[in-house]
# Entry
Amino acid sequence: MTKSELIARLAERNPHLYQRDVERIVSTIFDEITEALARGDRVELRGFGAFSVKHREARTGRNPRTGETVQVEAKETPFFKTGKELRERLNAER
Amino acid sequence: MSGRTITRADLSEAIYQEVGLSRNESAQLVEAVLQEIADALTRNEQVKISSFGSFAVRQKGERVGRNPKTGEEVPILPRRVLVFRPSHVLKGRINAGAAASRTRTA
# Structure
């Protein structure tokens, strides 16, 4: 499912909303999450999961193809931890 | 780094402000979006949100684990796990944000 398919599905289930508004709703959600992470905040959506930012120290890496050593700078990387309810749902129908 | 936690309430407030739906309906739509994503993943479908990232379900095989307290070996059953791959745009935004807050505090 892509973002546009998600929008189409939501529009179908909410016929009283304009397609344009559904687009803005979906964009607002992902923009808010992005902005929160850019500020270094956490986003916790109980039952679904939590987004956070993890710090990665600078390290000496290696180009796997050439074997050449390269300096990798310290960086912040987004991280998602699946919520308990969703994790259980994924494994429910076994 | 501010260290605040954003929740569903903040997302529905943003929708209320941006789109102008009622607070109640804004909250329902946040829930509906999360529900659609969870449903797709439960059907084993990958979910790709452009310029944000993608969610995919990965099948893990059985492996031997160990109870860290007792040292006892226990089998870890095969399971499905969710993995999130952030897009380059999201990674870029986060590193730009981190650099900005470093210069602010410096």
User: Anything to note?
Assistant: Chain A has one domain: 3-90. The beta strands of chain A are 42-45, 49-56, 59-62, 69-72, 75-82. The longest strand of chain A covers residues 49-56.
